[in-house]
Every structure is written in C-alpha cells, then in structure tokens.
Amino acid sequence: MRTLLVTSSHYVLGPWGPDSDLRRWGLALAERGGKNGKKRAVVAVARRLAVLLHHLWKTGEVYDPLYLARQRGEAEHAPRSAGHRHERTLDRLRTDRPP
Fold first, then answer.
1. How far is CA 63 from the centre of its chain?
2. Is 87 exposed, middle or buried (0-12, 13-18, 19+ CB in 10 A)?
3. Domain-by-domain residue ranges, the chain?
4. Can you say whether the dihedral through the CA atoms of 98, 51, 79, 15 is positive or negative?
5. Within 10 Å of residue 59's Cβ, how many Cβ atoms?
6. What is the spatial distance between Cα 47 and Cα 17, in angstroms, rounded to a whole number?
7. What pLDDT does 70 receive?
8. DSSP per-residue codes, 74-98
9. What per-residue confidence (pLDDT) applies to 11?
10. Within a 10 A sphere around the Cβ of 23, how many other Cβ atoms?
11. Is the separation of the CB atoms in 34 and 40 below 8 Å?
12. Which of 14, 35, 38, 89 is deepest in the core (most CB within 10 A)?
C-alpha cells in the first residue's frame, strides 16, 4: 500500500499530474523544502492522499479536486470535468456493489 501511495504521489506532483488542491499544496511544499524538499513533499502528499482516500471511503463523498481553490475563488477558470468523471466512476462502483 505504501508503494502505491508513493507512486501516486509522484504522479500527482509530476508533469502530467492533474491540477488539484493536493498538487498545489505538494508543489508549494517542495519549493520551500530546500535540498530534500521534493522527497519530503512526495511523502507528505502520499500521507495526505491516504487520509483523503480514507475519508472519502468512510463518508462516501464525491472527490472535488479543487474544492479549496473554488472556495477561495482561485479556480474560476478550472474545468469541472474531472470532478464529473469521478462522480460517474463512483456511481458505477456503487451500482456494482451488492446492497
């Protein structure tokens, strides 16, 4: 599980990672981290990703990648298609599950 979280964290922080609050936070952490900033940011994002996934699993909420940015007004031009894609995936998973 740790390997998957760290690999996912590398993807989120990498050049092809989708824009999200988690990515913005991780990149800011990497910039101010000094010599080992990127490594610490990867581990911190992996931990935060684990906490986020656990919360979503427990509550059944839909993931909104730019929730905080929207509340601050920073993501007015950000597309909402990623969130809708996640909603469709979660709906499909919920219907596949037995009651």
1. 8
2. middle
3. 2-96
4. negative
5. 8
6. 17
7. 85
8. --TTS-SHHHHHHHHHHHHHHHHS-
9. 95
10. 19
11. no
12. 38
Question: What is the pLDDT, as a whole number, of residue 81?
Answer: 42
The C-alpha atoms of residue 62 and residue 51 are separated, in whole angstroms, by: 15
- C-alpha to C-alpha distance for 99 and 80, rounded to whole angstroms: 30
pLDDT at 83 over 60: no
Tokens coding 68:
């905080």
d(CA 39, CA 28): 13
CB 82 within 8 A of CB 65: yes
Residue 30 near residue 41 (C-beta atoms within 8 A): yes
For 70, counting Cβ atoms within 10 Å of its Cβ (0-12 exposed, 13-18 middle, 19+ buried), the class is middle
Which one is predicted more confidently, 47 or 72?
47
Of 50, 44, 3, nearest in space to 23 by CA: 44
Q: Which of the 8 DSSP states describes residue 33?
A: S
